[in-house]
Amino acid sequence: MFRPPAAGAPVGRQECARILFDEFRELSATFALYGPYRPLIGRMINHMQYGNGMPFRDALLDQALKAHILNDKTVNSSLLKIRSALDENIDRVNGYFPNDKLYRIREIILEGRLPKFDRLQDNFNGMGITVHDTWATHITIKSLHIENGGYRVAVNYKVQDHFGLDTEDILKFKFNQFRFFASGLYCSAITSLVLSRL
């Protein structure tokens, strides 16, 4: 629980950091009200406080990414865009994907929307505060097997984000109206989410 020091008492650097992180943990509860991802923000804050700059990884983050990608049925879904590019360009008669059509996969992904946790429910399930946006997304087609007029594809997503809000984020009304974000806690530490073999 957040406990400020007695009024007027000097506070050292370590104590100041502890107070800031405790307040951060307490205020984060407002943005993680329900669902399986609720504990993630607490784990992430603990990692940022004690992880010595190491990237934050958690199986629950990977699970959230997988659910997000598989459940995205919008026309801009990156996974559906990949499937569309494969459907349109696979040579089913000869059973291969033409090399001269590889550019189309990249193009169609760029036309779509990469996975982000900025949906309405993410404001309350803990994902909007843990990974509200993404910093980098690397999508790789690990394998493509074409046979009998159909295909199987293994797609790998590697997503990274920074912890906290950078200057661009904090200037947005969505964030600067809340005391939680006013602390200015920002670390350039990386949050990694990996989804293999979709």
Q: Tally of extended strands? A: 3
What percent of the residues sit in helical stretches (DSSP H or I)? 25-40%
Quote the distance from N terminus to C terminus.
40 Å
Largest sheet at a glance?
Answer: 3 strands, antiparallel
The helix count comes to 9
Give, in spatial order, the strands making up the sheet with the most strands.
1-2-3
**Total of domains:** 1
Rg from C-alpha positions? Answer: 21 Å
Strand content: 15-25%
Query: Which segments are poorly predicted (pLDDT under 50) over 5 or more consecutive residues?
Result: none
Describe the 3D structure.
This protein has 198 residues and is α+β, with helices and mostly antiparallel strands. It has one domain (13-195). The protein has 9 helices and 3 strands; from the N terminus they run ααααααββαααβ. The chain has a 3-stranded antiparallel beta sheet with strand order 1-2-3, covered by helices on one side. Strand 1 and strand 2 (150-164) form a beta hairpin. Helix 1 (13-28) runs antiparallel to helix 2 and helix 4 (78-89) packs antiparallel against helix 5. The longest helix has 16 residues, at 13-28. The radius of gyration is 21 Å and the shape is elongated. It starts with 12 loop residues before the first helix and ends with a strand.
